[in-house]
Amino acid sequence: MREPENATYAYLDAFVDELARHKLENVVICPGSRSTPLTYAFARNGNIRLWMQLDERSASFFALGMAKASQRPVAIVCTSGTAAANFFPAVVEAHQARVPLLVLTADRPAELRGNGAPQAIDQLRLYGNYTRWFVEMALPEASDEVLAYVRTTAGRAIASAQGAPAGVVHLNFPLREPLVPIAVSGQPMPSIEKRDLVAWYGRPDGKPYVTGTRQSRKWSFEHKNLLTDLEKASRGVIICGPMSTNPPGFSRAVNRLAQCMGWPVLADPLSGLRGDLKKSGLVIDNYDAFLRDGNIVEQLAPDFVLRFGAIPTSKPLLLFLKKHSQAETWLVDEGDGWEDPTALAAQVIQADPTAFCEAATLSDLEHFTPASGWLQSWRTIAQDTAQAIDQKLAACEELSEAKVFAELSPLLPDGAMLYIGNSMPIRDADTFFRSSSRQIRLLGNRGANGIDGIISSALGASAVTTGPTVLVLGDISFYHDMNGLLAAKLHKLNVTIIVLNNDGGGIFSFLPQANYPDSFEELFGTPHGLDFRHAASLYGANWKRVKDWEQFRAAVQNATQTDGLKIIEVPTDRARNVTQHREIWAAVYAKLSAISYQPSAIEDEAEPDGLASLVAGGVAEN
After folding, report:
1. CA-closest candidate to residue 300, choices 373, 229, 349, 367
2. Cβ pair 138, 107 in contact under 8 A
3. How does pLDDT run across 345-385, given as a tens digit for each residue?
4. Distance CA 122, CA 134 (A)
5. How far apart are CA 163 and CA 216, in angstroms?
6. Which residue from 164, 246, 149, 127 is spatially nearest to 200, judged by alpha carbons?
7. 3-class DSSP state for residue 309?
């Protein structure tokens, strides 16, 4: 039985117990004094795995990676003051990317705020609008009413973090000293008959004190005008951007809808669909290359755009949509967000994506007829583009950032996870990482698109993933989060990191800033001259700097079959990298210019398409 002097521990034990009852599996803890009661409460519980991290920024991104990979909330704990402020970048990313995080910050009590007390800042609503819910927790008290409150708050926090959309919940705990449990002997226990046993010890059989149940938004075409809009469309495209979660059954549902409509699926590398839809022949995975060609953009004018997920990575795709702004655009989003920076959507439909696709497939589209040759035009262009890229890369003997992803595609084993850094890596992956029928999961931090915390995020994701994890990122991203490497050493994680080292910020060489050479290197190229083998040695990593493609292939194959932290450095030249990309685009233009891809000139391959044949083939199997 808990002693009345340990009210703080009765309070926090109840809170953590309730989190465990809601199946919280992981908590990332940063050491600190004011957070001692929270830390001890998690350690005493035993049902939630503890991951200790020394650096708050790295810790928060580690938790974000775990939550992203597991699609389950992860808690992070820190002490008061700037420790909580160091969580901010990951909080922003989690909010933008709809990742469920439970941020638990310890704080000084009210009497130690605003009067010069050490390690005290204003932590109330510290993260502003980047949380789904903020709570200034009540001061710990071992009463029936307060323990019922703290259990209810824990349940609500989990439900809110997993809401639509998922996101960040911030609970701020003001804690008074003493911060460690007090040993009391020889004193009688308070009378147990006067206590609410449920509030103190939780509901019987391990049940949660309170459960938040969310009903997904279903969809049916009750509004005839919307169905009429679909019937009028014949040259449509389905665009699937990055998705924070892979809705159950969505791959199959969107595949059937695409077959029914005779429309291509333009799948972002972080949509999770490229591998799933590879066999169907509907997915287009190199549109970023051929949509740079103005003639192709003109020929592929759509009359309808159906979007799912966040805005895609590809800038040529966004320019393609703006070029054809007359097309009817629908955005289907289960959450309450508004993922439309283009401002082109005529309908923003807040519905479960799977349910929407199923309803659209089974709707009575009496007057719908797919455009002849439309889907096959996209397929043929994609095939010719792939041939042009493959021929160009095959002739590339020097190390190239674009070719890294082309080489990785056949090297990664089934069940591997590829975490991709921002700036150039995600853009190169978009075009050059060829999708296959092997199950390779692609993840990245595309909420705020920042380069900070990438290492920590990938390590966190690897901690809840069974297959090998490979991270590809640039040298500046690597530098930004070298502190994060400690997690691999502390927790014995198995991760391969491929560092594309062009000694600076490579993406700026593609931007207009490069047209001003007098100050470009100092302000944007930012060469650092760092030798990363020393970082590898510091954290006990196996380091390899490759000199050619043969060494690269051997290093990747060995790394994915070896435990521990492995770092493969690929040296490249920034100026040459720009030239190589432009040579590839030129080869694509030359290949495509020789053929007319007008849909009327291309016949669709024989395959089940149209509503009647799809229904006859068994839509209701799912």
Report:
1. 373
2. no
3. 888 888 889 988 888 887 766 667 777 789 999 999 999 99
4. 14
5. 10
6. 149
7. coil
424-432 and 374-394 helices, crossing angle to 10°: 110
Give the whole-angstrom CA distance, residue 325 versus residue 470.
Answer: 38
Rounded CA-CA distance 199/96 in Å is 36
Provide the CB-side half-sphere exposure for 262 (13 A, CA): 28
Show the tokens assigned to 320.
Answer: 């393609």
| Domains of the chain and any CATH numbers | 4-180+192-206 (3.40.50.970), 224-382+605-621 (3.40.50.1220), 401-571 (3.40.50.970)
Determine contact, residues 579/396, Cβ cutoff 8 Å.
Answer: no
pLDDT at 513: 81
Which residues, in sequence order, are CB contacts of 204 under 8 Å at separation 6+? none
Specify the 3-state DSSP secondary structure of 316: helix
- The yes-or-no verdict on residue 70 having pLDDT over 50 is yes
Q: Which of 172, 139, 156, 164 is nearest to 209 (CA)?
A: 156
Q: How far apart are the C-alpha atoms of 350 and 343, rounded to whole Å?
A: 16
Q: What rounded mean pLDDT belongs to the chain? A: 86
Distance CA 473, CA 408 (A): 13
Statement: residue 493 has pLDDT above 50: yes
CA distance 408 to 405: 5
As a whole number of angstroms, the distance between CA 437 and CA 167 comes to 31
* Closest to 170 in 3D by CA, of 95, 257, 232, 256: 95
**Could you report how far apart the first and last alpha carbons of the chain are, in Å?**
52
Alpha carbon of residue 458 to chain centroid: 10
Q: Write the DSSP string, 508-570.
A: GGGSGGGG-HHHHIIIII------THHHHHHTT-EEEE--SHHHHHHHHHHHTTS-SEEEEEE
- The three state secondary structure string of 137-152 is CCCCCCCHHHHHHHHH
Beta-sheet pairing, 328-332 with 417-420: unpaired
Please write the tens of the pLDDT for every residue from 115-161: 878 788 888 999 999 999 999 999 999 888 999 999 999 999 999 99
User: What band does 521 get if pLDDT is binned at 50, 70 and 90?
Assistant: confident
Checking if the pLDDT of 601 tops 70, the result is no
Of 380, 290, 381, 368, the closest CA to residue 604 belongs to 380
Which 8-state DSSP code applies to residue 181? P
pLDDT, residue 247, reads 76
* Cα distance between residue 262 and residue 53, in whole Å: 50
Residue for token digits 């002490």? 79
Q: Is 223 helix (H, G, I), strand (E, B) or coil?
A: coil
The pLDDT value recorded for residue 508 is 78
What's at 507, amino acid-wise?
A: I
Residue 457 in contact with residue 61, Cβ under 8 Å?
Answer: yes
3-state SS of the chain: helix, strand, coil percent to 5? 45, 15, 40
pLDDT at 304: 93
Distance CA 531, CA 526 (A): 15
Going along 215-308, which residue ranges are E strands?
236-240, 265-267, 283-284, 304-308
